[in-house]
Amino acid sequence: xxxxxxxxxxxxxxxxxxxxxxxxxxxxxxxxxxxxxxxxxxxxxxxxxxxxxxxxxxxxxxxxxxxxxxxxxxxxxxxxxxxxxxxxxxxx
Length: 92
Hints:
The protein is α+β, with helices and mostly antiparallel strands. The protein has a single domain (3-89), classed as HU Protein, Chain A (Irregular), CATH 4.10.520. The protein is 42% helix and 29% strand. It has a 3-stranded antiparallel sheet with strand order 1-2-5. The model has no long low-confidence stretch (mean pLDDT 95).
């Protein structure tokens, strides 16, 4: 599902205009990004949680030349699905 499809579905389900639904989706996404940027964990009960995982620096390899390269530390977003979501997806 693309963002445009999500906006369309939100508009349909909540009986909003596409413009209003787009604003809702953008607000939710920017709130999640802002919280992650501030180092906060976002927990949506029954759905899952978003958090940041820190990766340390390491020595990598340039695939083109084979030279060793120092890769700097970075923060990676991580999503952990909640129990209810996992159960819904695996219900047969």
